[in-house]
Design a protein that fits this description.
CATH superfamily of the domain at 507-630: ANL, C-terminal domain
Largest sheet: 7 strands, mixed
InterPro entries: Acac_CoA_synth, ACAS_N, AMP-bd_C, AMP-bd_C_sf, AMP-binding_CS, AMP-dep_synth/lig_dom, ANL_N_sf
Distance between the termini: 75 Å
Radius of gyration: 24 Å
Number of helices: 20
Shape: globular
Domain AMP-binding enzyme C-terminal: 522-597
Pfam family, one: AMP-binding
Family: Belongs to the ATP-dependent AMP-binding enzyme family.
Protein name: Acetoacetyl-CoA synthetase
């Protein structure tokens, strides 16, 4: 008898679909059918997730036990539940093998075994308690991506305290701009890290940061121990919406917003994303190259929820050569590798052949986020990493600490697209009249609540900043206070996949035709000589519209009239004659947030001469670049 093939419902997501089908009597022919059910019946879906992962009693069989109030932004999830995120991690403590593997760019390797993890957590819990940390207090971290950082987070969460972290690449004032808002009881820090072959000593910076955090006690990771074998971790049971961590917006044009996310919401969202969509479980090795200032560090912790090994990496991903991370994949037998378009682009332009040069046979999925992944990079992965390797380009954000859309096991990957809308994510493309669009560019909206949406913003008692951030967009007929507008241009295809076109507040509106910056980058950055591109659409005070294209070049490339003509022709022929830039300008660099997002919106505002916008240089990866861009001006009439 031939088994029924259900596209997109293989692996753990297939097991989940079988359980739901048996319980509800519904048949799911493919992924789309399961997604449609999940958005139509969110309470039933999240109950099914809760029970599939055996997370404990919910209190009653009513939908209200899962979703007490379905109205955004006031949605209330799991109102009668008490739990602790760390309990789901520690249910895997009897496994053999590594829970955490931590590496630096010089190859130093630290391993924390699953059986060792409780003792490590218990040791740090005691240190935190000795420093006065109790339930509800904030523990701030100023650290590189290390095993000690993961253990410190787990100890914090186990106590019912709230975690917030910042990478040591931030200067003390930049870190304090985030962490001081939280009035932490403890600062966890370390002596420093290695980057680009250099030792970066952070002891003085740590002392300076500590002075900016009144009342905080310093806890050094160098003082952590392996704990006691057999130590028991007794976790503090908290409500589902009890703060697990505070993440921060980029804060490039104002005070960074503290996004408070809860134990229950993060737990179910990360199990859904990592275990169902990512198909992670015991025996897998999950490595997302990240830093503590980026929500992907928090997202990678989901591997522990699934019983997988997670790999931490501290240092430059391109040192000593652009091949460094591919060597890590081979050495650690990574099964799911998460990276950025920038790292893949650097690998391509360095002429790497990772699949030929390394044993990547364990690799099952390659994930990418941070910006749109151009189709040519999908093709490069297929040609140079592994033929047929599924590429999961995901889009979500710090706002929810998960993905709205991305890849999923068994779903066909189309270059340049995010394969599916994630389960229970009611993401759509809307016109300005709030009309759903298919195969047309529109505003990305979320029309139903997600469990990991912020419980609240920090220091926002009336919810005004929260509502202003997501629920105040002016549609053609006025604002809709119950629709999450995310700020991206998106196309939803007739197959249910997504194409992200860039920020809708950084639109290139040339001759009345709108286009996202990501479409320009796809064309320009595919040119071998170009390392990175930065395109802006600037409304000038005199009524003119200026569209400059800034480029940086790969080593050895020459910027001349021939290259400029080639770029203009490529944009004209492959994209649109209406979006050929007014000027192509060689730049010393492209400014980013410290999590790698190009600063299109604030730099556009600067060039437009808007006095209401100032850039927080502490949030910029290379602050000196901002002054260079301030000096750029359109040609005279």
């Amino acid at each position: 008898m031939t088994a029924t093939v259900r596209p997109g419902l293989t692996g753990r997501i297939g097991e989940f679909a079988d359980v739901v089908a048996a319980r509800t009597g519904k048949e799911f022919a493919d992924y789309t059918a399961l997604w449609q059910w999940s958005v139509e019946y969110p309470a039933q879906f999240w109950r099914a997730v809760w029970e599939f992962f055996d997370l404990g009693p919910l209190g009653s069989s009513d939908d209200s036990a899962v979703l007490a109030d379905p109205t955004m932004p006031a949605a209330r999830w799991f109102p009668d539940v008490t739990l602790n995120y760390v309990d789901q991690v520690l249910r895997h403590r009897d496994q053999s093998g590594a829970a955490i593997v931590a590496l630096d760019e010089e190859g130093r390797r630290v391993v924390v075994e699953w059986t060792e993890l409780p003792g490590r957590i218990a040791d740090v819990m005691t240190r935190l308690q000795d420093a006065g940390v109790t339930r509800g207090d904030v523990v701030a971290a100023y650290l590189p991506d290390t095993a000690e950082a993961v253990v410190a987070f787990l100890a914090t969460a186990a106590l019912g305290a709230t975690w917030s972290s910042c990478g040591q690449d931030y200067a003390p004032s930049g870190a304090a701009g985030r962490l001081a808002q939280l009035r932490p009881v403890v600062l966890v820090s370390g002596d420093g890290y290695r980057h680009g072959g250099k030792v970066i000593d952070k002891t003085a910076d740590t002392r300076e940061l500590l002075e900016m955090l009144p009342g905080a006690t310093l806890l050094r990771t160098e003082d952590f121990t392996t704990g006691q074998p057999g130590a028991q971790v007794v976790t503090e049971q908290v409500p589902a919406d009890h703060p697990l961590w505070v993440l921060f917006s980029s804060g490039t044009t104002g005070r960074p917003k503290g996004l408070v996310q809860g134990h229950g919401g993060i737990l179910v969202e990360h199990l859904k994303a990592a275990a169902l969509h990512g198909d992670l479980g015991p025996g897998d090795v999950f490595f997302w190259q990240t830093a503590l200032s980026w929500m992907m560090w928090n997202y990678q912790l989901a591997g522990l929820l699934c019983g997988s090994t997670i790999v931490c990496y501290s240092g430059s991903p391109l040192f000593p050569t652009a091949d460094r991370l591919w060597q890590v994949l081979a050495d650690e037998r990574v099964t799911y590798f998460g990276t950025s378009p920038g790292q893949l682009q650097a690998s391509r332009k360095a002429g790497l052949h990772p699949g030929a040069d390394h044993d990547l046979s364990a690799l099952r999925t390659l994930g990418s986020t941070g910006s749109s992944l151009a189709p040519d990079l999908f093709d490069w992965v297929d040609a140079e990493v592994a033929a047929g390797l599924p590429v999961s380009s995901i889009s979500g954000g710090t706002d929810v600490c998960t993905a709205f859309a991305g890849g999923s096991t068994g779903v066909t990957v189309v270059p340049g697209e995010l394969s599916v809308r994630y389960l229970a994510v009611a993401v759509h493309s809307w016109s300005s009249e709030r009309r759903p669009l298919i195969d047309e560019v529109g505003e990305m909206v979320i029309t139903a609540p997600m469990p990991s949406m912020p419980v609240r913003f920090w220091d926002d008692p009336d919810g005004d900043r929260y509502r202003a951030a997501y629920f105040s967009h002016e549609w053609a007929d006025g604002p809709d206070p119950h629709i999450w507008r995310h700020g991206d241009w998106v196309t939803v295809t007739d197959r249910g996949s997504l194409i992200i076109h860039g920020r809708s507040d950084a639109t290139l509106n040339r001759h009345g035709i709108r286009m996202g910056s990501a479409d320009i980058y796809e064309v320009v950055e595919s040119v071998d000589e170009v390392a990175e591109a930065f395109v802006l659409g600037v409304d000038l005070p005199d009524g003119r519209y200026w569209m400059p294209l800034f480029v940086t070049l790969v080593a050895g490339a020459t910027f001349d009239d021939s290259l400029v003509a080639h770029l203009r022709t490529a944009i004209r022929n492959r994209l649109s004659p209406r979006h050929v830039p007014d000027e192509v300008i060689l730049a010393p660099g492209v400014p980013h947030t410290r999590t790698g997002k190009k600063l299109e919106v604030p730099v556009t505002a600067i060039l437009a001469g808007r006095p209401d916008v100032s850039v927080d240089l502490k949030s910029v990866d290379d602050p000196e670049l901002i002054d260079w861009y301030r000096g750029q001006h359109p040609p005279e009439r």
